[in-house]
Structures are given as C-alpha cells and as structure tokens.
Design a protein that fits this description.
The chain is mainly α. Helices cover 57% and strands 0% of the residues.
Length: 315
C-alpha cells in the first residue's frame, strides 16, 4: 500500500490517516480546517491588494514596494499604468465639476461597438433584404428587440453626452492653454459622432431613414464649392453626377449604392477613425496635466514664467 500523507505537502487532495483511531483523525481534520481558513484569509487579502499577487507581478514587471518613487516609476514605465497619472488634482475628478460626461460617452461607445457587432450577424446591406432583416430581428431573434433598442438608445445618449461634455469643457474654460489642441480633437470627435448617428439612420431602410438621408444629402448638394447647387458650383462645372451628394450616395438617388456606402461608413470607416481620435484625445488629456480642475494647475514648463500681477479694476 502506498504511503498516506496527512498534510497538504504532496500532490492532490490531503489523505486522512487510516487505522490510528478517531482521536488522530479528529486532530488531522482540525489541522485541515485551520489550513483552509488560512488559505481563505490569504485569498481575501490578495483580493484587497491585487497588486501583491504573483499574477499581477508577472504581468507588470516593476518594483512592488510601497515607496512613492517606485509607484511613480511604475506608472511612467508601463503603458497601462501611464493612462492615469501618479497624482491628480482631487477637485478635478469630482462629479459636480466634470459631470462624468467624458467617461459616460466612452462607455456608450463601447456599448455601441458590442451591440453593433452582434447586430451585424443578422443584417444584410442590400436593398431588398435590409428591412426584412430588421423585422426578423425584432420579431424572431431571441432578445433581438432588446439588442436593437440598446444600440438605438445608446446612440441617442452618446450624442447627448458628447454635447454635454463639450458644454462642460466650455463652461469651465478647459479648452484654454495648454489644451487648445485637445479641444480641436474633441470637435472632430463631435462631428464623427454625428456622422455615426446619421449614417446609421439609413441602415433599417425604412421611410424615416430614406427621407432623413434625402434631406441631408440635399443639404450637402448646396455646399459651396462642393455641391452642384451651391455657390460657385456652376462656375466650377460641378454637376449632380460629380458633386459631393453623388459621392455620398454612390449615385443620384438614395438606392442600393447609398445603403452599402452608409453601411461601410457606419460599421468600418468612421468607428476606426473615431477610435484613433479617441486615443489621441485620452493621450492629450494625460499629457496636458490631466483633467483641468477648479484649482490652479500649472505644467512644469510654465512654472519658470513670471506670473503677471493682478490689478483690480478701479471703481
């Protein structure tokens, strides 16, 4: 018979001792319970401080002592940690100041990406099949109506939160130096958000989408220098068959080519462009000193510059 071990040092589950009486077995059982309690306590401590676990240390190859220098070096030398600064202005992250609109907008973008990918499994961007796919999704696909409504309402909310985010940035003066460039990136993201919403309108191929795209592309047809009906269009020999409306629709009417182009722009081109600009936007927030807060925050490059004296207005 193989040797039996009463501890957990060997491989596999612990084996109770046999043929030594109930007292020995009770003592062995008590030891196993104590060992189990110790392991549970260790696991609980590791959940409270995951940075001390071996899994965390294997992923992030930095020093793990609790000094300020080690924490700062860990943030600066790791791409994941570098997304957040080592120190932040505590007033700048309060919801009564930021409203959380930037983070909510990014969360809605993730929801739209996930639900959009799932919707692509049930959709064909063809003139005779698109509307039938929507009906099938709403009536026969399990949770299809919920999936489509999640995508639809997340799109509406994303437009609202982008506007509120830019409104907050404007009210708090966060577009000023040194954040002018990031403000311009945000304006581009606002335009891309509106284009995502507009191109998604046509995809159900219903009357609402048809007339929305018809009105929108007709407005583009009146654009100066680009539209056949816009100023200087005739002088530049722009016709309804080579203007910006023709390029958007792939023809002179809202037809199958327009549906296919809207699908490609909505599902591939604009999301990729928006993702790139989001990465630049987050990077610039980090490089510009974090979120601008109500307390005065100065960059290291601006600390050597003399501060102009304050002259109150004379009454």
């Amino acid at each position: 018979m193989a040797d039996q071990k009463s501890d957990n040092g060997g491989k596999g589950a612990p084996v109770p001792p046999g043929g030594k009486g109930p007292g020995v077995f009770a003592k062995w059982l008590k030891e196993q319970i104590q060992n189990l309690k110790g392991r549970v306590k260790e696991e609980g401590e590791s959940l409270k401080r995951p940075e001390k676990t071996q899994l965390f240390k294997s992923m992030f190859r930095v020093k793990h002592d609790d000094s300020d220098r080690s924490r700062a070096l860990g943030v600066l030398s790791n791409v994941f940690f570098h997304l957040h600064p080592a120190k932040i202005n505590r007033d700048a992250v309060r919801y009564r100041f930021t409203w959380g609109m930037g983070g909510i907008t990014f969360y809605l973008f993730l929801v739209l990406t996930l639900t959009g990918v799932l919707l692509m499994y049930y959709y064909h961007p063809t003139k005779g099949q698109a509307y039938q796919d929507i009906i099938y999704l709403m009536s026969d696909v399990p949770f299809g109506k919920l999936l489509r409504n999640m995508h639809r309402w997340a799109a509406h909310l994303m437009v609202i939160t982008v506007w509120l985010h830019m409104f907050r940035v404007f009210l708090t003066g966060s577009y000023k130096k040194p954040r002018e460039f990031n403000w311009c990136v945000g304006v581009v993201l606002l335009v891309l958000t509106l284009l995502l919403s507009f191109t998604g309108y046509l995809l159900p191929d219903d009357q609402l989408g048809f007339w929305a795209v018809t009105v929108g592309t007709t407005m583009a047809q009146n654009t100066p220098l680009l539209g056949s009906l816009g100023p200087l269009g005739r002088q530049l020999h722009i016709t309804p068959y080579n203007d910006v409306r023709f390029a958007l629709l792939g023809g002179s009417i809202v037809d199958a080519n327009a549906l296919l182009r809207a699908y490609i722009w909505h599902c591939i081109a604009i999301p990729i462009i928006a993702s790139v600009f989001m990465g630049v936007h987050f990077w610039r927030v980090r490089k510009d000193g974090g979120i601008s807060g109500p307390a005065p925050v100065m960059l290291a490059s601006d600390m050597d510059k003399p501060v102009p004296p304050y002259n109150p207005p004379k009454m």
